[in-house]
Every structure is written in C-alpha cells, then in structure tokens.
Amino acid sequence: MVYALKFGASWILPPGIFIVLALGLVVKLFKINRKLSIAFLLVTLIFYLLCTSLVAERLMGWLEELHTPPTQVETSGADVIVLLGGGAISQVPDVDGVGALCASPANRLLTAVRLQKMLNVPILVSGGQVYSDSGAEAEISARVLKSLGVPDDKILTETKSVNTAQNARYSAAILREKNFSKPLLVTSAFHMNRAMLNFSLCRYKPIAYPTDFTVAHNPTFHYTKLRPQAEALLLNVTVMQELLRTCVTEVFGI
Question: Is 0.90 surpassed by the pTM of this model?
Fold first, then answer.
C-alpha cells in the first residue's frame, strides 16, 4: 500500500504532472496533426524515462563504475591526498565557525580524513570561492579537517580554482613545488572520470579513489522505479553534464 501511494502521488506532483499534461496534449494534437502528435509523444516518453530511477540507476551506475578505488590503498605508494571541492555555503553556522560544505564535498572530505589517518600523508584541498555568495571551499575544508584531528602540517590548500580544469592545473603546480609524485585523488564517483582526464592533461596520473556514490551498482527492479521523480531527472542530467564536459575537455583541453 505504501509503494502504491508513492507511485500514485508521483503523477500529481512535478515532474509527473507535466508528463500527464503532455500526454493530454498529445491526444489533442492527434486529431489535428498526427505527425506532430507522434513527435511530441516521443519527446514526452524520453523525458519520462529520464525522470525514472530505473534509467538513472543504470546511467549513473555506469559512470560511477569507470574507476574503482585500489583494494590495498596502504601499499599504493600514495604520498599525498588531493581532495577536490564541490560546493560550499557561506554565512551559515557550523560547529566551529561560519560556512559549511555542501553534501557531496562533505562526503569527499570524510573519505579523505579516513585515508589520511590510514596513510599519514598530507591532504591537498583544492577549491576556491566560485560565486560571491558561495563559501571559500578550501578554507572551509581546512577548518573542518583540523576539527576532525588532521594536523596543521598535513593540510595544504589551493584556493584559486573554480572548476575541475583549474583544480587540476593549480593542484599540479603545488604538487610539483612540494615534490609529490603519486597523488591519491578523492572526488565523487560520478566526477572521477573527468577529474582524472584533467589531471592527465597536467601530466599527472593520480590513483583514483572515488567516493560519494549515489546509486547501488547491482540495482534490482521494483515497479516504483518507473514513477517520475525529480531526483532521478537530476541524476540523469548530472550524467549528461559530465559526458558533455568530458567531451569539451578532450576536444579543447579545458
């Protein structure tokens, strides 16, 4: 009963209600222009599929599985952890200051802290202030790292970058300056492929340590995965954005 209620409610809330309205328009158009009606139906079906977790789980799962963490990170030889930012909020209260990380970078940071305690190597935090009203990512991350027990002398910050290409470029400069040769790269699993590509353009081949996974990699079918959800649409848009940005990086090197 609970699943049936969820399934039904999804059709009277966005984006489900828009699909219902679009199907109503398809019926109206069919009496006027069949070809246009069929074309509009195909667009509606594509939009519907992109709104289902059935599709989102498979597309995002494929992207997140392109890189896997090493099974024996202790013997990987990593001499530094590079932690990429992914969004911060300024002027909001936090446990030990003002400004907080968004959900994805917070998950990345938690993984980096655990790895640092395991390897006892420095963490290089990469991320600047993207917008005037967003948080200074590297500075906020450094504060959180200290509050979690990472020593000051094990924290390095790169505070200028505002995108992945700059993350790689400015981090690579610091890595060379500090004579680090084998970085362990920590970022969200969906973001790892593009991040690795950008670091390779800077003549570094980091050890990939993806984290912040968003979907199960062995999904099972349930009929509720066919209901339209904004969360599923967001996952599919994220995959498309990553693919587009990866193509741009491969073609233009940016």
Answer: yes
